[in-house]
Amino acid sequence: MTTHTVDTTQELAAFLRARRDRLNPSDLGLPSRRQARRTPGLRREEVAELAGVSVDYIVRLEQGRGLRPSADVVEALARALRLAPVERTYLYDLAQQRPRNTDRPATTAAPPLVRLVTDLSPLPAMLLNHRYDILAWNREMSGLLLDFDTLPVPQRNAVWLCLMHPEIRDFYLDRERVVREGVAHLRAAWAAHPEDQALSDLISEFATGDEEFARLWAEQDIKVNGRGHKVMRHPVAGVISVDVEVLVPLQDPDQRLMIFRAADDRSRSALERLSAQ
């Protein structure tokens, strides 16, 4: 099985190359050159100029030659490459310039959070850790998705369910977006938790067992959603649209409280019928 333990040097190199290739020089106000560009995106010389570092330094970074850029250089590269906030955080993680949380990742939910998930009824709610392991859920979430108590613990993972579970694979109408966002979240978590072997093993399982995941993982998208929208095809209640809010407990920053709210009257009625069962 291919391992996905984080090699920060090689991942940093690949990430810088990928982000450089995605930039359009004209959007950055760079002067046009007479010589035609053989590859898309910025040249290394242009990134070096924008970041205020030498071209040789960029070359060595992109070749994965063991450099560890300082926080100032990381910030300069983030500005030069026009990184989104979550991508900037990812770059800091790869450069090991962000303080690490040395606590072991949670595999069970703290009792106060379990009670909170229950108290959020009738809104469907569940608690996940950074791996997307489902740690706690209320009755409404089970009614909407599936009975998590019937699943082995290793399968209580939101990404695993979307990729592997026969009932959930076709549950989301916009499946491509849902999977893409899940993969982008796992990539950010992977850089932030390089010591988490369980997460690395999970990614290896997905990458070797699911072509869709492997394709999306190779695109190196980074995203951490705080809110969103999902449209689901429930086998009993029909099409349900929900707005999703994701909250992070201050004392447990690697966990996510995910709350679903009906996005329209029809969906509200459908959720009420499910809750009454």
TrEMBL record:
Pfam families: HTH_31, MLTR_LBD. Residues 34-88 form the HTH cro/C1-type domain. SUPFAM superfamilies: lambda repressor-like DNA-binding domains (SSF47413). InterPro entries: Cro/C1-type_HTH, Lambda_DNA-bd_dom_sf, MLTR_LBD. PANTHER family: BLL4672 PROTEIN-RELATED. This is Helix-turn-helix domain-containing protein. The lineage of its organism: Bacteria, Bacillati, Actinomycetota, Actinomycetes, Kitasatosporales.
